[in-house]
Amino acid sequence: MTSTPGNGFTLAVTLVGLFGPFLSFAVITVFTRDRRRTSAVISIGAVTVSMLSALLLLCRLPHLDNPIQHIVRWLVAGNFTLAFGFLLDPTSLLMFALVGVICFLVQVYSLGYMSEDRGFSRYYAFQSLFAWSMLSLTVSASLLQLYMFWELVGLSSYLLIGFWYEKFSATQAGKKAFVMTRLGDVAFFLGLLLLLLHLGDVNILKINGAETARALSPALLTLSALLVFGGIVGKSAQFPLLTWLPDAMEGPTPVSALLHSATMVAAGVFLFARLFPFFSHSPDAMTVCLAVGSLSMLMASTMAMVDPDIKKVWAYSTISQLGYMLMGLSAGSYFAGTFHLITHASFKALLFLCSGVWIHYFETNDMYEIARKRGRTLKIPMACIVLAAASLAGLPPLSGFFSKEVIIAALFDLENPVWFLAALLGIFMTAYYAFRPIFIILFPRESESEDIKVINKGAYRLMAWPLLVLAALTLLLGFFESAIEHYVGAKVPEEHGWLLVLSVCLGLLGVGLTWLEFGRRTAPRTGFVERVAPIRRFFLERWFLDRFYGWFVRNIIHRIFADLLTRNDSQVIDGGIHALCRLTIGSGRVASFLQPERLRYNFVVMLVVLFCLGLYFLLSLVANV
């Protein structure tokens, strides 16, 4: 085992923080599946230890001039070296703490949300598996080790998305998420193999080193970077693999909050930040990443402007904000993308968990139905979701305002103004779709239901206090911009005062237009996009991406490849085996005539054969003489 500079204490704390959730998963799965309360205590206790361990490391290692690395060489063969271990640097420590806090809050919230679910213990087992996988991913020392936990995150996400497997739509959503993310993971794995073949090692510090650019040709460097980026596209639901994420809303709402805030889908952006020096070596790859992030941001924003399902609106907003993060990173600003990843975690988890309270009590995802059922009477989620939506829209003084301004400044410094203009358009669209559900629920126009839902106060309190914690983070995180900048040691783009004013004005313009269309007493309650039926259908159908994929699978995969393979299987493989069988049977029948069940006949045949052999040898001998 090798370590660079560190000590046994950091290693011990890391191990304790990582393996608690794994042991929790194993114990619940084997021993406590029938004991609901015990399962919840074990799972929440384990994730609490993980959160405290992560926060302890974050506080104990405030300034890291050199990363701390604890690795064990697993395989050495010729020029190839594979190692496993832990890499602690500002990027991993921030993500480690962020994942720990979000997992803890979601699991506590789930006590109220899942209190009456029959699969309560199974749910907490899957939550523990997810927490272990994601926490381990953040501190992985090599790209191969990260890839293994990357796949485990995908597996546990599949289990959580399809948790209510009795529902056909939930199982389909889980399978769709699993298959579409696997497409990206295949590209990621190919990129990993390419780096391993040419570098001989996939240690993250080595990949990020300057020698990588010297060891690989520009074309090979760009190709490997784009292949790794394919995994990011799949995991973070970017174009063209973005349609699985809205369907993933079939899982329990706490799962949606977990996946969308700082964990599963954010893992793609984290990987980009983790390998930021490596990606920076290829300007062409950075341009492609910038284009994909920008297109995903705009496409998802248009979809969020028309969908009536509140969870899907936040799902589209996640795709959009991940696109923003990729734009910041691809513009060359490590801090811009990373800072928005941190702030987004708090307000996105808050948006989902607030919506989850309404969904839990009113049993609907439709924002108009929530308004009719007096969703605004639940004061804590109503106040918190307004705060979260304002942060999503980038309004001051909330955390989303600070992080978006850094991204805008980074894009403004680029030579091509297209990316900057796309970001400004995204600010307006984000503010519009963020406040659309707010005004619909806050100012209902339809006659409100006379039935008053009986609220379980105990469950409501369990769900309420994580909302308050996340609301405080949403309010305060932006003021720690300088501290986070100093911690990660990254260069911050120069901000311009007029850019701040412009972005805030665009955000307020989006909110104002939403108020005119959904908030005021005489509002039409229909958005300007929704009034044009073809455009509304186009956005609701997700730009017909799913229809294209369906056509492609039916006509290309099934009719060409599947049919060709079926004919090959039936005619070549099965046909060859059948021909061999017929040959065996025929030869057996011919041989049966040579061996009838008559002893005298067999004896005569043997004598004839021996006579012929003897005659052959005699003639050969005479010929030689």
Secondary structure elements and their pairing?
Blueprint: E1 2-4, H1 8-30, H2 36-60, E2 68-77, E3 80-88, H3 90-113, H4 120-138, H5 143-161, H6 168-199, H7 204-207, H8 210-215, H9 218-235, H10 244-247, H11 253-261, H12 266-274, H13 276-280, H14 283-304, H15 310-330, H16 334-362, H17 367-372, H18 379-392, H19 399-412, H20 418-442, H21 457-476, H22 481-488, H23 497-519, H24 533-540, H25 545-594, H26 599-624
Antiparallel strand pairs: 1-2, 2-3
Helix pairs in contact: 1-2, 1-4, 2-3, 2-4, 3-4, 3-11, 3-16, 3-21, 4-5, 5-6, 6-9, 9-12, 9-14, 11-16, 12-15, 12-16, 14-15, 14-20, 15-16, 15-19, 15-20, 16-18, 16-19, 16-21, 18-20, 18-21, 19-23, 20-23
Contiguous uncertain segments of 5+ residues:
none
Which secondary-structure class do the elements indicate? mainly alpha
Radius of gyration: 31 Å
The DSSP helix count reads 26
Cα-to-Cα separation, first versus last residue = 80 Å
Characteristic key phrases:
mainly alpha, three-stranded antiparallel sheet, 3 strands
Give a nutshell description of this structure.
With 625 residues, the protein is mostly helical. The protein is 74% helix and 4% strand. Among the domains are: 331-539, no CATH class; 541-588; 595-625.
Description:
The protein is mainly α and 625 residues long. Among the domains are: 331-539, no CATH class; 541-588; 595-625. 74% of the residues lie in helices and 4% in strands. Strands 1-2-3 form a 3-stranded antiparallel sheet. Strand 2 (68-77) and strand 3 form a beta hairpin. Helix 1 (8-30) packs antiparallel against helix 4 and helix 2 (36-60) runs parallel beside helix 4. The protein is globular, with a radius of gyration of 31 Å. The termini are far apart. The relative contact order is 0.07.
